[in-house]
Design a protein that fits this description.
Elements lengths: L4 H11 L7 E6 L16 H14 L1 E2 L2 H9 L7 E8 L2 H14 L4 E4 L10 H11 L4 E4 L5 E4 L3 H16 L3 H15 L12
Parallel strand pairs: 1-3, 2-3, 3-4
Antiparallel strand pairs: 5-6
Helix pairs in contact: 2-4, 5-6, 5-7
Length: 198
């Protein structure tokens, strides 16, 4: 599988201004084993591998800690780049790390420790509930969402994109209640292996 030319141009364009002594940081959340039909924009292993090949040839990729030390010493090289991962998804360790090792590159991982060992972030509960739901629609009227279509992957994604922004800014307790109710309403088992294990 070849990395989409638009993605390569986008990454290159975003980083092109970093030709002087400053640090660019690429932030990832996930690298999937294979493409996800609901989230095709998330890199899969083959795309990440190709991207790292491009970066290792064109940039000075360094660990974030090393980059910070060099910034303090005002010795940061041109085209300096750090790679980071947020949240602590299991695929960071299972998929991304072996590819990083193969390319001899380092990355910094920021782990949401509350979700280790079988936990799941609220947005993933919504996503996986909609993914697992059966039928052509789900009735979430009691939760204020109405009846939402899920007959196709495009409709499931539209439903997810409708729900997440409406839930995101609720206060913590209300958000937790709504998310739990969504999972209960769907009534399907949800994955407990999304996050790293301690």
């Amino acid at each position: 599988m070849s990395l989409d030319a638009h993605l390569v141009r986008g990454v290159a364009g975003a980083l092109c201004s970093a030709l002087g002594p400053r640090l660019s940081v690429l932030v990832f959340h996930r690298v999937l084993p294979a493409k996800d039909p609901l989230f095709p924009e998330i890199l899969c292993a083959a795309e990440f591998d190709q991207l790292l090949g491009f970066l290792s040839q064109s940039w000075t990729v360094m660990g974030l800690d090393e980059a910070v030390q060099q910034i303090k010493r005002k010795g940061l090289p041109a085209r300096a780049l750090a790679i980071t991962f947020d949240d602590g998804y299991a695929d960071n360790a299972e998929v991304a790390v072996p590819i990083l090792v193969r390319h001899g590159l380092r990355a910094t991982f920021f782990i949401a420790t509350d979700f280790l060992d079988g936990g799941r972030m609220w947005n993933d509960t919504v996503i996986e509930a909609v993914r697992a739901a059966r039928g052509a629609e789900i009735d979430l009227s009691a939760l204020g969402f109405g009846v939402l279509p899920i007959a196709s992957n495009a409709q499931r994604r539209e439903t997810i994109d409708t729900m997440l922004p409406r839930i995101k800014y609720l206060d913590f307790e209300k958000r937790a209640q709504i998310v739990e109710a969504v999972g209960t309403r769907i009534g399907m088992p949800l994955p407990s292996h999304l996050m790293m294990r301690g």
